[in-house]
Structure formats: structure tokens, C-alpha cells
Amino acid sequence: MSVLVGVIMGSKSDWETMKHACDMLEELGVPYEKQVVSAHRTPDLMFEYAASAAERGLKVIIAGAGGAAHLPGMVAAKTELPVIGVPVKTSTLNGMDSLLSIVQMPGGIPVATVAIGHAGATNAGLLAAQILGAFDPQLQSKVRDRRERIRQSVIESSVLE
Ligand SMILES: Nc1c(C(=O)O)ncn1[C@@H]1O[C@H](COP(=O)(O)O)[C@@H](O)[C@H]1O
């Protein structure tokens, strides 16, 4: 099956966080690719990646970055595909810098921003699957089954001894 989701990150050091998005895509059987692309350090590659993503068949892009996290917004500026931004936690400002850099997009160029760090990356993978699931009943049913398992496990552990 062709690759549907592009998972990109500003640096190899973001992998620790971004692997959680990939884990979720794998769990749900969504074909994806992963790559380091930086708006700051490899601007031409970033432009090329974003500009060609739709014609290469990608449907959703997940972009994670830390600090002055311009990657998700700049990618969103160069593609009409939905972009999900993952703020990577930083040692200096705990990821608040990443979050604020990603979330405050100007009108007309949206980035769907998730929470800071690992949990946000997991949700980014899930959100990408849910977007694709709107056009793919089989994938949507996998998401539904996953939610049911979560619901069951919360109910099972809801009685405190
Ligand atoms: N925020 C960005 C961008 C970008 O937005 O284009 N490129 C790299 N970075 C971030 O710099 C941090 C430190 O990177 P290094 O660990 O390589 O020094 C990473 O979290 C990366 O996402």
C-alpha cells in the first residue's frame, strides 16, 4: 500500500518523541514514511518535501520540532495537506517555546497542534489515522475498536480498593 502519512522532524534528537507517532501509525496499520527535515537547517529540502507531498500521494503530514519550532507552520504554508504539529519538549523551556511557535498560526494557514511531548506525538498519529479513517471504514473501525479497549480498561480499573 502506498505511503499515506509523512512524519517529519526538525532533528534526529526529536526521534525519541516522534517515534510515538510512528508507533501509533504502525499499530493501526497506516503506511507512513519518516524523515528529518528542517525549516532552518535544510530550507530547500523542506520546501521540496512540502511542495511535492500531495503529488507523491501523502494525505497527512505530522511535523514535530522543538524550540523555535517553525517546521510545522512552514510546511503548512507550502502544502494544502492537513499538517499536525507536535511540540517537542525542550530542556530550557519545557516545550512551551515549541508549543507557542506551532500553535499561533496566522489566519488561512492552519496547523492542528497537539500537546507537548510523547503523549502529543501519540495523539498526532491517532489524529492522522482518524482523518484517513473518515474515507476508510476499515481504518475507522480499527480506531473504534481501540477506543473500546481503552474504555473497557478504564472501567475495569475504575474501582479503587
Ligand atoms: N525547530 C527546529 C527546526 C525547524 O523548525 O525547522 N529545525 C530544527 N529544530 C529543532 O531544534 C532542536 C534542537 O536540535 P538539535 O538537537 O539537532 O540541536 C530540535 O528539537 C529540532 O526540532
Automatic annotation (TrEMBL):
Please indicate which superkingdom the organism of origin belongs to: Bacteria
Protein EC: 5.4.99.18
Name the coiled-coil region(s).
none
InterPro entries, alphabetized: PurE_ClassI, PurE_dom, PurE_prokaryotes
Residues recorded as binding substrate, renumbered to this chain, are: 11, 14, 41
Q: Which UniProt keywords apply?
A: Isomerase, Purine biosynthesis
Question: Where would I find the PurE domain in this sequence?
Answer: 3-154
Please name the pathway.
Answer: Purine metabolism; IMP biosynthesis via de novo pathway; 5-amino-1-(5-phospho-D-ribosyl)imidazole-4-carboxylate from 5-amino-1-(5-phospho-D-ribosyl)imidazole (N5-CAIR route): step 2/2
Q: Does the keyword Isomerase apply?
A: yes
What does it catalyze?
A: 5-carboxyamino-1-(5-phospho-D-ribosyl)imidazole + H(+) = 5-amino-1-(5-phospho-D-ribosyl)imidazole-4-carboxylate
Enzyme class comes to isomerase
Q: Name one GO molecular function term.
A: 5-(carboxyamino)imidazole ribonucleotide mutase activity
| Function in brief | Catalyzes the conversion of N5-carboxyaminoimidazole ribonucleotide (N5-CAIR) to 4-carboxy-5-aminoimidazole ribonucleotide (CAIR).
Give the family from UniProt. Belongs to the AIR carboxylase family. Class I subfamily.
NCBIfam families in alphabetical order: purE
What's this protein's name? N5-carboxyaminoimidazole ribonucleotide mutase
Query: Which gene is the coding source of this polypeptide chain?
Result: purE
